[in-house]
Amino acid sequence: MNTQPKQRVGRYDLISPMMACRDEILDKFEKFLDSGQYILGQEVRLLEEELAAACGCAEAVGVASGSSALFLALAMAGVRPGDEVITTPYTFDATIEAIILLDAVPVLVDIKPTDLNIDPVKIEEAITEKTRCILPVHIFGAPADMHVIQDIADRHGLEVVADMAQAFGTLYDGKPCGAFGRMNTLSFYPTKNLPGIGDGGMVFCRDTEDAERIRKIRGHQAVRMNGHLYTGWNSRLDEVQAMVIRIRHARFQDEQRDRDEVARIYDSHIPQAHRLQTPNGGQGMKVTHHQYWVRAADRGGLRAKLDAAGIDTGVYYDPPMNHHELAEYCRMPGSLAEAERAGREVLALPIHAALPFDDAQRIGRLVGDFVSSESSTES
Ligand SMILES: Cc1ncc(COP(=O)(O)O)c(C=O)c1O
User: Fold this and answer.
1) CB under 8 Å to 251, separation ≥6 — which residues?
2) What is the mean pLDDT of residues 3-11?
3) How far is CA 138 from CA 56, 92, 134, 342, in A?
4) How many alpha carbons fall within 13 Å on the CB side of residue 290?
């Protein structure tokens, strides 16, 4: 339980959770040094088994980063030059970079204001004969509408690859979000809920053949698929990262409980129109809150108020990917007004397992008062 209030409240605390397992990490590290098994040893293998089971998938393949995971998953889902991949503009650069690196075309469609995830209605409108794949992103740890998206994909003969970089532990309809679609990709970047102490990523595969191909490619073996020869490359997950991630995975549920409590405190202060509303009224959904976001028309004012109170906040995807310099490679068939509005209005509050609950109460009250007075001036 978190009780110690601090001076300035940071958005993340990357160090405390690592310090809590410092001795275990150092002990394992010494054994690792002695083992000489520095590349693709037992830690990567065990992590793959443990996370495949946790995500309800046949197999998981550890790779160099969440970005590599996206590239490999899209390639093995059959995305080829000139194909279109429908995705969201309200995401991190890596999502569209992976598509462009395959000489395919990101097709950006708008998001829903309630959960900031891709709007399935807009997906259906954007499908053409060139569409190969739908790439939802479970943004900030909230699940995209996977049943609806899969249904669209099935009706149009498309693949679904989901970017779950921010959503380890997230449930959709009672199942881990990694259990949906053909493949799912994860990042172990140190700010993520299940972090390493460096770069790392994973591809979750429903089909063991996809996993086999990705295992080959990550270790310099060429792969032939659908008549096309894919080159191998070095995209291996580092053994030291796997070792640390396994230790953190054993503590994941405890840490998540603390993040959940922080989110519950924020929810109790912030009116629902200004924060996440999960699909199906939250039934069967579990949000892991990689970010806890709040929406304010005067985001700058709210940010300044929190800053003056010693509270750090974050701004994401402002502007969204339709303004990125890579947008010239993208197709944008319709309005992206909700993504633009999210870019302007959304503010990420501190959330991590070591955040004192007293701080969360104080932040929640400040934010709740600010957005409530905004709503009353609007009406
Ligand atoms: C939505 C999303 N996709 C992909 C990535 C890329 O992951 P990595 O930094 O491990 O390459 C990130 C990381 O920040 C992300 O947030």
Assistant:
1) 17, 20, 21
2) 74
3) 17, 11, 13, 15
4) 25
- CB of 199 within 6 A of ligand 1: the answer is yes
Q: Is 131 in the pocket of ligand 1 (CB under 6 A)?
A: no
CB neighbours of 34 closer than 8 A, spacing ≥ 6? none
Span 310-366, pLDDT tens digits: 999 999 999 999 999 999 999 999 999 999 999 999 999 999 999 999 999 999 999
Least confident window among 167-176, 277-286, 330-339: 277-286
Contact 90 CB / ligand 1 (< 6 Å): no
Q: Could you tell me the residue ranges of all domains in the chain?
A: 16-109+117-247, 252-378
- Domain 16-109+117-247 coded CATH 3.40.190.10: no
Q: Can you tell me which atom of ligand 1 is nearest the CA of 139?
A: 1
Residue 320's contacts (CB-CB under 8 Å, 6 or more residues apart) are 89, 90, 91, 336, 339, 340, 342, 343
Tens digit of each residue's pLDDT (9 = 90 or more) over 191-207: 999 999 999 999 999 99
Q: Is 91 touching ligand 1 by the criterion CB < 6 Å?
A: yes
Report the topology of domain 252-378: Aspartate Aminotransferase, domain 1 (3.90.1150)
The answer to whether the CB of 115 falls within 8 A of the CB of 142 is: yes
